[in-house]
Amino acid sequence: MKIYILPIDKIFQPGSVPFRYPIYSKDYGMEQDFLIYLLKHQELRVSKPEESDWHYLPIFWTNWHINHDYAKTGLAELQREVKRVILDDKKTFTVSQYALGPLVDMGKTVLFLSSRQSEKGIDIPLLSPFYKEIDHLLNKKYLAGFIGSFKNHHIRKKMFKELSSRKDVYISDSSKLTRRAIAKLVCNEKRFVKNILESYLVLCPRGVGGDSFRFYDAMQLGVAPFLIGDIDTRPFKKFIDWNKISLYSNKVKGLNQLLDSFNNSDLLAMGKEAQVVWENQLCYQKWCPLVIKELKNVYD
After folding, report:
1. pTM of the predicted model, to two decimals?
2. Domain positions in the chain
3. Separation of alpha carbons 36 and 63, rounded Å
4. Which tens digits make up the pLDDT trace of 69-128?
5. Which of 4, 83, 223, 241 has its CA 20 to 30 A from that of 278?
């Protein structure tokens, strides 16, 4: 397969944003990571569009929309650039981490989306930062845990209500904390990471988008993730057997029974295998070859 990188104006690849989400992340996401992958792998690229199988649209959607007041401005300018640069929408693909997607009309362009909100798009993961300094040998205290904001999606409050009577489940709502308090909680104390390591299972209810960063935090830290949301956004289902390394439910009703159906040794084994999959297929640069595999199947 050969890919031609469409020559966009560099202003559509902004390098920084005024606010990062999650707060412990860097000004670096899926869009930047995939472009770097292509630039490193010269064997995938061609310099002439007519020699290619696919055209890649390398816009940094997330940084652009955040820098334009979360897409309240800048859409007309973005639309003009997309219209100018796309040569053949049926041969074009792009990568977007922004929860709402590119937000402009791109015709039949293939969308690879982190945390998609609808049935449209091909799932890719969210990037979890590396946690090298954390003690991975903490004793388990909980069957399942969650620390995060209830504001991001109504399913989170429903999850809490469903599981609130359990002593073996830890759930903490950070939505009433100030941004500075959240920064201290996440960046300094690493309390949320400690909670992951003290749990056999990490509850990962969807947020603004259909996925959750903590899903991949859990995998990296060797703990089984449990995605709860209306859309199953676990990526690359053709290539990863998610049933062996994670749980998924599209509703909160019945969560108690589902949690009780697993024993601790099974969950520990699931977490260890999830960590292997994250390290080999879902962390920085490792997820990019799976996009290439997905492209080969788009029109099959």
Report:
1. 0.90
2. 3-125+286-297, 142-282
3. 16
4. 999 999 999 999 999 999 999 999 999 999 889 999 999 999 999 989 888 899 999 998
5. 4
